[in-house]
Amino acid sequence: MKEMPTYYYEIQPAGNFDNYAFEKKGTLGKLSLINLFVGANNTGKSRFLRNIFNNEFMFNTNNFNATTYNNYLKKIKIDIKESSFIGRVRVNGAEFRGILDINYFDGCHEYKNEIFPPDMGEVKRLKSLLEELKKAYGLEDAKRPEDKINDAHNFAEKCLNELNIFEFEYKKRFYVPVLRGMRPLTSSFNDNLYENRTRVDYFDKDNPLNNVEGHAKVIFTGLDLFAILKDKLLGEPQDREAVYNFQEFLKEKFFNNKTITLIPREKDNVVHVKIGNDVQLPIYNLGDGLQNLIIITFNMFMEKEKCLFFLEEPELYMHPGFQRIFLEVLSSPQLNHHQYFITTHSNHLLDMTLDFENMSVFLFRKKGEGKEAKFLINQVSSRERNTLKELGVQNSSVFLSNATIWVEGITDRLYLRKYMDKFKKEIASSDKEYLEKIKNFKEDYHYSFVEYQGSNITHWTFDGEEQDKIDVNSLCAQCFLIADGDIEEKGTRKANLGIALGDRFEILKCKEIENLIPEEIVRVVAGNKLKGEKADLNLIKYEEYSKPNEPLGDYLNSKLKTDKFAEETGTIKNKGNFCEKTISLMDNTEWALTPELKAICKKIYDHIFEWNNVL
After folding, report:
1. Does residue 263 sit within a domain?
2. In whole angstroms, what is the distance from residue 366 CA to residue 346 CA?
3. Residue 241 included in any domain
4. Tens digit of pLDDT for each residue in 186-211?
């Protein structure tokens, strides 16, 4: 499993948070790489975001906390007392310390409240003493003092290397307000009216930017991007290369590998953009969504050291498909050394949190009015109905994709997404022509999944003829519907859907989606579940459990002589957890699609291809 970079795991904000109520002792957690602040208007999201941008806070991280440090300090003190060089070497520092004795590290103290202060003073003090110990020298009357000196130096070097885990510092903080754009507002590109307005409204009057040495705070609105690009393109070779690399980044991530060139044209003091073979145009003749993407991602890409980004509603002007790509980009190795705090009203971003690791959602609510108002912050699941309600999301939200894939539930969606991705990888060498047709299709842009939850399918009409049901065609794009094999047992449902959908209706030739998991994956997942128990995993055979009417849970219980896999119905117990473990394993294990899965993926991509007008 890939190691995730260190980031804040919980923070205890300073500053004016008296009217905010947290779930745990004034602490916001558990944080992730990407943190979404959601809620209705006027619930305190933006003010909270600006406060944590502008103020220091105590913290713990995902890779260490104050307890980790305290335990390590205890170990150092024990090791130094048991060392062979105590009393045999001298050390220097700001003041002469004399012969090294067992009290040498007593000036280093444990953190009392299990959370780090911003300056990490105790860690720095310990490192300072270890650096002194690296300069130790021997006593004249010591027998072979050079051996003790080497022991002291090696001990100090070893401890300093171990303390690298506590190296944690963000060099800059970037705040990107809603007031942003790349179109100049005056004839002078040096006049950043958006930044000036933001400072006056939110910081300069009563709360100026609290720059701390080594922790610069930057308000980035995009209006100064012209000057920045011009300076870099006329500057050092490494600056020109950085701009070129950013253009390549945009090309790969957002523009389907069409070359994109950013040109700060001095004649009209505005950035011009050329995409592929299109005519070069000034930024104001292109969509606001394009400007938004460039503004938001520019510093994320350019900053190679850890930075914090505080973003106000990044989804503005952004198609839902690009919102998904945006989250993928933040999670990518290119940008996951930063950490992100985001206010949003986008139900699309919220819905996607299930598909990405290292994302947290915090729901803001306002209670009371005027001076008595309190702002409540709760960490929530994106699947909680109340969260969607707070955003004003209704069941009639319109799909904007050109094609929809209807599946029974969330695990079907997650498995199929993984299989579709694997399908593209497997045909990379065998069917390059077909790959060229489908490789750039993006979920929530060219197609979307819809979960219809089993028997709820009877509430819909797919031909518009049943007046008492919800007409699919009035709600979303052309659909391809996949049903579990047990639909055969459910009256006339199969016949009705077949008539309405024709070739756009696929029935699994097994009981449900779990029965299609490749054999090599099922064996490992089952083995991990049965750790410590004797079980012959080679007994698990795909050709047996992929038969019609064979519940996978009952099959595994029978083959492995256990009761850990099946619900009373015979299906897999705790499907969500089983799916999570299965998909995680697929990311780190060699496996191949079965012929059945290849056929399903081909039908899905044919459907997407047909309804995106690319025939």
Report:
1. no
2. 19
3. no
4. 665 567 888 888 888 888 755 567 65
CB 367 within 8 A of CB 373: yes
pLDDT of 439 over the 60 cut: yes
The answer as to whether 545 is a domain residue is yes
Residue 499's CB is within 10 A of a number of other CB atoms, namely 12
Q: Which residue has the higher pLDDT, 452 or 303?
A: 303
Residues 501, 368: one domain? no
**The two three-digit tokens of residue 142, written as one number:** 């010591």
Whether residues 57 and 87 fall in one domain: no
Cα 192 to Cα 608: distance, rounded to the nearest angstrom:
44
Q: Both 578 and 604 in a single domain?
A: no
Q: How many domains does the chain have?
A: 4
Please check whether residue 279 lies inside any domain of the structure: no
HSE of 410, CA atoms in CB hemisphere, 13 A? 14
Domain containing residue 325: CATH number: 3.40.50
Distance of CA 241 to the CA centre of its chain: 28
376, 496: one domain: no
Distance between CA atoms of residues 456 and 43, nearest Å = 35
> Residue 200 in contact with residue 230, Cβ under 8 Å?
no
Residues 176 and 14: beta-carbon distance below 8 Å: no
End-to-end CA distance of the chain: 40
CB proximity list for 42: less than 8 A, separation 6 or greater: 366
Q: How is the beta sheet containing 89-91 ordered, strand by strand? A: 98-99, 89-91, 137-138
Q: Residue 57 half-sphere exposure, CB side, CA atoms within 13 Å?
A: 24
Where a domain ends, among 390, 421, 456? Answer: 390
Residue 248, C-beta contacts closer than 8 angstroms, at least 6 positions apart = none
Q: How many CB atoms lie within 10 A of CB 112?
A: 8
Residue 477 structural domain:
403-511+600-610
Q: Which amino acid is at 215?
A: H
DSSP letters spanning 20-43: EE-SBTTBEE---SEEEEEESTTS
313 and 192 in one domain?
yes
Which residues, 6+ apart, have CB-to-CB distance to 78 below 8 Å? none
Given 344, 365, 390, the domain boundary residue is 390
Q: Contact at 8 Å (CB) between 36 and 362?
A: yes
What's the average model confidence in pLDDT over 447-452?
Answer: 86
The answer to whether residues 409 and 502 belong to one domain is yes
pLDDT by residue (tens digit) across 486-507?
Answer: 776 666 777 878 877 888 889 8
3-state secondary structure of 221: coil
How is residue 326 written in tokens? 């945006």
442 phi and psi, to 5 degrees? Answer: -125, 135
Entry pTM: 0.70
Q: Cis peptide leading into 30, omega within 30 of 0?
A: yes
**DSSP at 148:** H
Tens-place pLDDT, residues 543-587: 999 998 899 999 999 999 999 999 998 999 999 899 999 998 998
Give the Å distances, CA to CA, from 276 to 251, 261, 273, 279, 322. Answer: 9, 9, 10, 9, 19
| pLDDT of 526 strictly over 80 | yes
Render pLDDT for 293-312 as a digit per residue (tens, 0 to 9): 899 999 999 999 999 999 99
Co-location of 302 and 340 in the same domain: yes
Q: What is the mean pLDDT of the chain?
A: 84
**93-96, Cβ contacts within 8 angstroms, sequence gap of 24 or more:** 93/128, 93/129, 93/132
State whether 177 and 308 are in the same domain.
yes
Phi then psi dihedrals of residue 10, to 5 deg:
-155, 150
